[in-house]
Specification:
The complex is a heterodimer of chains A (about 375) and B (about 230). Chain A is of the alpha+beta class and about 375 residues long. Chain A contains 15 helices and twelve strands. In chain A, helix 5 packs across helix 13. The longest helix of chain A has 18 residues, at about 5-25. Chain A is globular and about 75 Å long. Chain A starts with 6 loop residues before the first helix and ends in a 5-residue tail after the last helix. Chain B folds into two domains: about 5-95 and about 200-230, D-Maltodextrin-Binding Protein, domain 2, CATH 3.40.190.10; about 100-200, 3-Layer(aba) Sandwich (D-Maltodextrin-Binding Protein, domain 2). The two termini of chain B are about 25 Å apart. The chains are: A alpha+beta (about 375), B alpha/beta (about 230). The interface between A and B is large, with 41 and 40 residues.
Amino acid sequence: MAQDIPYKSRVRIEAEAICDGFVAAGAARFETDILLSAEVLLDLYGEDIRARAYVTTDPERGEMMLRPDFTVPVVQYHMEGDGFPASYTYFGEVFRKQEDHPDRRSEYMQVGYEEFGGANAAVSDAGMFGRFSEVLAPLSLRAATGDIGILIAMVRGLATTEDRRVALMRHIWRPARFTALVKRFAGLAPVPPSRAALLAAEAPLQDAGVMIGLRSEREIETRIDALRADASEPAMSSEMVNLITAVLSVSETCPNALEQLRDIAVDMPGLLPALDRFEARCDAMARCGVDVENLPFEASYGRTSMEYYDGFVFGFYSEARPDLPPVATGGRYDALTRRLGQGREIPAVGGVIRPDLVLDLGGLP
Amino acid sequence: MTIKLGVPSKGRLMEKTFDWFGARGVTLTRTGSDREYAGAVDGADGVDLVLLSAGEIPRELAAGRIHLGVTGNDLIQEKLVQWDQKVEPVAPLGFGHANLIVAVPNCWVDVDTLDDLDGAAAAFRARHGFRMRIATKYHRLVRDYLRRGGVADYQLVDSQGATEGTVKNLTAEAIADITSTGETLRANHLKILDEPPVLESQATLFRSRRAEVTDQERADLRALINRLGV
């Protein structure tokens, strides 16, 4: 008889069951609007989100967005409260344009679980991952994990100028651009003729002509000074480029990945605090019953997602249905709470499950 | 039923399209008064002329309401998601050449590449507290181009006309627009980035992959394409 229930109702039943499980684990129920103010989301994610979210206009309230995910509303909700540690669960529709995959759903349900204020990041990360593994275990999915915190530590620890570190940090989430910058800083990419001419010019602004626009002459001079200062810096060594490449290419089981990264850290000691956190998380996962010995770890995993994860990241994929998007994704996003919290910051980790895909893969018992 | 051929309804694009078909033995004419959008086809059987705004032709082709249509590939690629599954280019017509480009003020002597644009955008956002604004009407194509070019910290602002004036009017810092000679850009103190254009466009005859055809219509369509020699 179950076949007679409409598909969307069955997805909702699946979502409710997962959500109830999270409530039983101690999470409070969270609800929010479908129509959200676009301003905060656009400022956070930039133009990329316009390609992925539905933006519309309200004559009075300005640009509005159909909820692309729950993360921003739940962070805002928590930060307006008393600040005590709390965890939340929710389910509801989210909306994403699928220009590159028109066959994928643009309206679908998400069930989420988010934890704020956990005092021990390793324990919180492990608990979150452990809970998702447990819920999804009947579907025999492949788990993927990574840690953006290791990449951030790598960039922060690079022996180069602050300007170069800032430039690389900005592009951690854009792998191709990141690699191009590394090559340029290492002198491995040719200097464009226009840049060479600018650096060689005695008074580059002399022939600038009419000054128009909001970007002032002073700003242009400041950037020229910065480019000149950078050009006089020594190139990043090829050893450093090799170390960066080595870190980014780590793809192993967790224990082997940790060992490889510890080897790299002999020449890149900036990685050590992040690796200690990685190790603490592995230990905590083992205590949660996760098979850490065989859990995959990819250093570059999570780099192309929207740029709010800044620590542990994970996803669950169907090996039988590689055409499907991930069934669940999640990670740590302390930096997002910092940007939304006007000076305050709260440790935060969470994830979402797609109950429609759970159902497509046979459902949970 | 007949094959429907969509052609821009006015201006040089219409005249040049008529010339192109005429040179190949198919005479297109407007009928009725100057203001009436009706036309006739001479030299090919079973073909109806449909006069449309060039901007609507992509949508009509994708919906299968016209079988053939003349428009720029800039409009096809901006307006149709996965355009190559909906329409097929039959022949470039050799006119209406224009490039979609990104241009910045001439006085930005430090900006010539996308790498520069990204660097300037980062500094601009830090200094002004908002993302660098790029005025355009080609949102999808430009966004995709800038994403592939690794540019961050920008926002697109919509400009449906007089885009070159937005920088001077302080409603944008840079623009992305169609240009053929670059004269309007120069007159407005703008320069094109030293990069491949977002898109090279020209007037093109497209065939709809979505329009349904009867056997008779298929034969008429084949006869027309043979006649045109494309």
